[in-house]
Specification:
Layout (H helix, E strand, L loop, with lengths): L4 H12 L4 H22 L10 E2 L1 E7 L2 E7 L3 E7 L6 E5 L9 H10 L7 E4 L2 E4 L9 E2 L33 E6 L4 E7 L1 H4 L4 H10 L5 H16 L4 H6 L2 H4 L7 E6 L2 H4 L7 E6 L6 E3 L1
Helix pairs in contact: 1-2
InterPro entries: PP2C (IPR015655), PPM-type-like_dom_sf (IPR036457), PPM-type_phosphatase-like_dom (IPR001932)
Protein name: Probable protein phosphatase 2C 38 isoform X2
GO molecular function, one term: protein serine/threonine phosphatase activity
């Protein structure tokens, strides 16, 4: 779903002749609007489409600047070489929107002061309205427009009371970072990876192995940790059908981008879309 953002981004860049936070926000808004339009068209025949949604993580490099935009709980991590020690350290670049984070719960309560049940602790997990963990996404129309939170939507997605403003948002958090010669690579991944690997562990893996196939190696490391937590062997975990494996670990998508020194040095170059990532994809890897 997040791939929809790419052509729209190129269109806005052509229109404005540059990349900016405003252009990125317009791209997210246009992607959201187009998907909700699709929901409207298919709602009566395919009501479950109203419950479909995706996190959206975008990275753009333009004139030596790195733009990271995120809606949801995917994460972008930078690997940077420390000059003094020559060690590669992990720097998290994205802001996550997950109700497990106290600041996100505080934000939801501030935006919805009239709703004491905006976040609910359910089975030791904080969820928005007791249903979903993320507070921002593309899609999830049933928590953005009340007209989609009623039959024929399946009852498990329906709220017991009406709502009068969107519960979730598609507004991204954006970070602008001037690239430095010490910046080596970027890891973009869905929360399924970060559930099992720390930022520094992921960077250590990228730094310790050849580039070719490094994203798959990160996924394998995360799956080994998932198996260990379940006190089972990695080989046995891999034998479990994908539909059942969702009970053992979340879907994992990973892309590793090795930075071009020419871009870091700020030499004239066209703006380039570097990455799109999302939650809800099959366990996969790209590099």
């Amino acid at each position: 779903m997040t791939a929809m953002a790419e052509p729209k981004l190129h269109g806005y860049v052509s229109l404005h002749q540059n990349i900016s936070e405003n252009v990125i926000r317009k791209t997210f808004a246009a992607t959201e609007e187009e998907f909700l339009s699709l929901v409207q068209k298919q709602w009566l025949n395919e009501p479950k489409i109203a419950s479909a949604g995706s996190c959206c993580l975008v990275g753009i490099i333009c004139n030596g600047q790195l733009y990271i935009a995120n809606a949801g709980d995917s994460r972008a991590v930078l690997g940077r070489t420390e000059r003094a020690t020559r060690e590669v350290i992990a720097i998290q670049l994205s802001t996550e929107h997950n109700a497990s984070i106290e600041s996100v719960r505080d934000e939801l309560r501030m935006v919805h002061p009239e709703d004491p049940q905006i976040v609910i602790l359910k089975h030791n997990v904080w969820r928005v309205k007791g249903i979903i963990q993320i507070s921002r996404s593309i899609g999830d129309a049933y928590l953005k427009k009340a007209k989609f939170n009623r039959p024929p939507l399946p009852p498990k997605f329906q709220l017991p009371e009406p709502f009068y403003k969107p519960i979730l948002s598609a507004e991204p958090s954006i970070l602008v970072h001037k690239l430095r010669p010490d910046d080596q690579y970027l890891i973009f991944a869905s929360d399924g990876l970060w559930e099992h690997l720390s930022n520094q562990k992921a960077v250590d893996i990228v730094n310790s192995y050849p580039r070719n196939g490094i994203a798959r190696r990160l996924i394998k490391a995360a799956l080994r940790e998932a198996a260990k937590k379940r006190e089972m062997r990695y080989s046995d975990l891999k034998k479990i059908d994908r539909g059942v494996r969702r009970h053992f670990h979340d879907d994992i998508s990973v892309v590793v981008v090795f930075l071009d020194p020419q871009l870091i040095n700020g030499r004239p170059s066209p703006c380039s879309l570097s990455i799109r990532g999302g939650e809800g994809l099959p366990t996969s890897a790209n590099s």
